Amino acid sequence: MLLGLSIISPILPYYAESFNVNYTLVGLVVSAFGIARMFIDLPVGFLAQIYNKKYLMLIGLVLVSSSSIMAGLAQNYWILLFARIIEGFGSAIYVTTSTIFIALVTSPERRGFLMSIYSGFLLLGAIFGPSFGGFVADSYGIRAPFLAYAIISAIGIIPTLILPHINKNNDEKHIGINELYQEAWFSLKDSRFIPVLPSIFALFFIRTGVRNTLVPLFSGNDLGLNEASIGILLTIAGIATAITMVFIGLLSDKIGRRTPLLMSLILSAPVTLWIAFTGNFFYISLVIFIYGAISGLSGPIAAYVTDIAPRDKLEIYMGVYRTIGDIGFVIGPILMGFVVDLTMVSAMRDGSLINLVGWPPFAVAACIMLITGLILFKAPDVRKKDLIG
């Protein structure tokens, strides 16, 4: 799933730009995926209470695969945008359901480690996808990565078919859709959950706003790198994130979840701004590796939400978690694209006029990380209290 998604990350902004739209609309194409997920994450939590989780995951994969073909064959911007929305529906169904599946089969004593392993395998796909996508685009054209995405997502159906069905207690009462939203609203009043919500937002915001939007635009426009080189950069970030994420997940079972998340947000701020002052491929590769490693410290976030959630409301809290994350997923690229539109400067390169991204959008992202990191100081570390007790 994530291998396919990351294949298109080096070329998606350029592909959208090829339809002669401004950078705000370029950001909207990146965000459209998250817009769809944002509206369906919570209902998926409701569906996961009632229906076989394996079947829901299969439906998600089919939607992703078919929408990728539509995007690759798009003849105008609006078809591409529609395809990204359908892709977002499929992704929400798959990722939310699979996260609930993992949360249900893990014990509190090993939840941080095992859920970080899960996140690490998602990132394993993200590691190799950008480089592969960049080379595919260089060799076969800018539409080819979407078709590769469709094939790889379809292949994901095979291992999903062998997953077991988790039988729930027959006496357990399923809530209705109205009660679902009432319970979701109740979770937003949970004093343990409230300080964590801005951090969830920020972590998804920087994933799409910085890594998937600003880095490709800055690398291509300011540094003049091609799609293959941009893919390598994103792969470097993915490798560093995956390495850190598995290690920190295991450590969070011993020291609690909040400290790694605080470090991820606070340290990411200056490193994000640092990216804007790199001047060549080697230099930005080094900074991107550091950025990726720090991002990996956020690995325990899903375990943190699982610790906070009442056991009988896990699906609801997880749906809220995914919804808040996808709000960040949506706003990140649009806001960063808007800031680029406001602050970009023009310059001549090889006789052609180009738009330079510059440092302002990176500074905006850094401020968001610092502010949400400070808010997280007020959040309780549930797992750490359990360990001390």
Any overview of this molecule?
This protein is an all-alpha fold and 389 residues long. The chain has a single domain, classed as MFS general substrate transporter like domains (Growth Hormone, Chain: A, Up-down Bundle). It contains 17 helices and two strands. The chain has a two-stranded antiparallel ribbon. β1 (345-349) and β2 (352-356) form a beta hairpin. The protein is globular, with a radius of gyration of 20 Å. The two termini are 39 Å apart. The model has no long low-confidence stretch (mean pLDDT 82).
Beta strand count:
2
**Backbone structural class:** mainly alpha
CATH superfamily: MFS general substrate transporter like domains
Low-pLDDT runs: none
Q: Per CATH, which architecture?
A: Up-down Bundle
How many individual domains?
1
Please work out how many helical segments DSSP would assign: 17
Strand content: under 5%
The CATH class turns out to be Mainly Alpha
Shape: globular
Multimer state: single chain
> Helical amount among residues, as a percent range?
over 70%
| CA-CA gap between termini | 39 Å
Output the strand order for the largest sheet: 1-2
In short:
This protein has a two-stranded antiparallel sheet with strand order 1-2.
Brief descriptors of the model:
389 residues; Growth Hormone, Chain: A; two-stranded antiparallel sheet; 2 strands
How is the topology of this model organized?
Elements: H1 2-7, H2 12-17, H3 23-50, H4 53-72, H5 77-105, H6 111-140, H7 144-155, H8 157-161, H9 177-187, H10 197-221, H11 227-255, H12 258-275, H13 281-295, H14 301-308, H15 314-343, E1 345-349, E2 352-356, H16 360-376, H17 382-388
Antiparallel strand pairs: 1-2
Helix pairs in contact: 3-5, 3-15, 4-5, 4-7, 5-15, 6-11, 9-15, 10-12, 10-15, 10-16, 11-13, 12-13, 12-16, 15-16
